[in-house]
């Protein structure tokens, strides 16, 4: 009686999933290949462009930008100069740029995909009901699991890393966009309607501007999550600082691992403060 | 033709709308319907008409359905049944596109919490209604500026709403509603969020604006004083029903039922009643025809110590005391114009009781009530006190 499970066959969910991904890979190969090519060359253009800038000029530009974005305070500017000089000194400059490109590309794609989905959720109760559990799934499924189909679709390299980052990092943008639009006060929505706005007019003139700060908070989260995928993505061949951490891990080298980790930390702080200040300073 | 005509308009919140409507028609109370069907009747078969240029006030306590009713009229809330005619067009039967056209051209709305867009300047806020119509930047700026001038905010164009006081913000709300030159303005508790002094200023300003604009205004409020002050007619709502519709006087003097009566009880009668309503028919003599003898005779008959003097057109000339008349008779003076006091305490017919106090207090003679110099009636001190006490006869007229 207690062992009744022995009589029931294991449901072959894993097998189904394998078949499904195989089918996807075969069927949409015509789509995956151009995506891989296009995204790959787009990213190498950016990386090459950024690497071409002499590090010292790059560092100064970042510092000046930081100075003005934080409302002419010196803190972030000084941190950026010291932090980036340190990375340059450790001979990890190219890796830094590669990681930056990865995070930038993944974040832009997340925003392009996430904001419209968030708007859809805010506008449709049905969409919200369907999408919410999918977002939960995307966020709670261990990120390593995404790597497998990512490799199946795009083989190894930077593009599958982007794909895995997309799945992992898009949900906050979607959620915050939805939340931001739903939080717009009823009276403002009524005012927009009462004066005869069309749906898009209401969205672009009232709802999105009002939800801007909430959406930006979501974008900030997305960027941070994309950054946190750097090391994981390096397991399937994404270049950059993550690969340094990974190789240190594989060889049990504490020192180099720590240095690469520290560089990721510096990058994280700079990116985080930048994105936060975009939505804090430009109030209105 | 009335500009707004509402027929049997109902709104049921909840799933079981049909059953709820049937019960409502059977005359069941809101709570019973909620118990039986789980649905709330927000507005229950409301019907009324508003004439062009009228300020029609819908008044009721919170939960009476007044805010729902005003939102049914521009369909911010979809009606369950009923018809809404604006200028002869039935909004209830319109598709989205037509509805949008009517909202843009004929209706505008002023909100309780102002409903201003915090990310837009005052000018941009005022332009909003014109902007969504696709009117050119130049023209909409011109119109918006005109409308801001009208409410006295012409110099605040580039400020943001949070830089303005509540009263000023609501002026922007008003300017925005006026900018697209609507036929009907819906004002939802427009002044309720303002403190009492500012509220009174805004009421005055609305009345002033109305003198020149002649809009049709549907004004929602929970404040009876406000309703009485600005309303040409008032509809009282309770539990989704319209209980009574009438002019302020009609509502005060002839409450349709216990509910209205109770409502009206607390009104400060001093602010509502006017000289016109408590005055009495005056005893007069005609300055062109009569002399001191006739005057004395009339005073004796009526038991008065003074009498008002008018000319043939009933224009007030002055007052004659019994003493002066006696003196004149002894001295053989024939012409009344030599012996009357020309300085008579006078009030206009729509002066409120409240404002009468000061005048009547230091006056040894009754007050005269005039309209453009014509004597309409007189008020003695006793009448004021009687009216305040809520007893005594108050003149029945519109």
Automatic annotation (TrEMBL), chain A:
Keywords: Amino-acid transport, Cell membrane, Membrane, Transmembrane, Transmembrane helix, Transport. It is a multi-pass membrane protein. GO terms for cellular component: ATP-binding cassette (ABC) transporter complex. GO terms for biological process: amino acid transport; choline transport; glycine betaine transport. It is found in: Cell membrane. The chain crosses the membrane at residues 42-67, 74-90, 102-122, 143-169, 223-242, 254-271. CDD domains: TM_PBP2. One of its GO terms (molecular function) is amine transmembrane transporter activity. It holds the Pfam family BPD_transp_1. It comes from the Bacteria. The keyword Iron does not apply. Residues 96-275 form the ABC transmembrane type-1 domain. Belongs to the binding-protein-dependent transport system permease family. CysTW subfamily. This is Glycine/betaine ABC transporter. It comes from Terribacillus saccharophilus.
UniProtKB/TrEMBL annotation, chain B:
It is an enzyme of class 7 (translocase). SMART domains: AAA, CBS. Its EC number is 7.6.2.9. It holds the Pfam family ABC_tran. It is a peripheral membrane protein. InterPro entries: AAA+_ATPase, ABC_osmolyte_uptake_ATP-bind, ABC_transporter-like_ATP-bd, ABC_transporter-like_CS, CBS_dom, CBS_dom_sf, Gly-betaine_transp_ATP-bd, P-loop_NTPase. GO terms for molecular function: ABC-type quaternary ammonium compound transporting activity; ATP binding; ATP hydrolysis activity. It catalyses: a quaternary ammonium(out) + ATP + H2O = a quaternary ammonium(in) + ADP + phosphate + H(+). Residues 21-264 form the ABC transporter domain. It is found in: Cell inner membrane. GO terms for cellular component: plasma membrane. Keywords: Amino-acid transport, ATP-binding, CBS domain, Cell inner membrane, Cell membrane, Membrane, Nucleotide-binding, Transport. The complex is probably composed of two ATP-binding proteins, two transmembrane proteins and a solute-binding protein. Belongs to the ABC transporter superfamily. This is Quaternary amine transport ATP-binding protein.
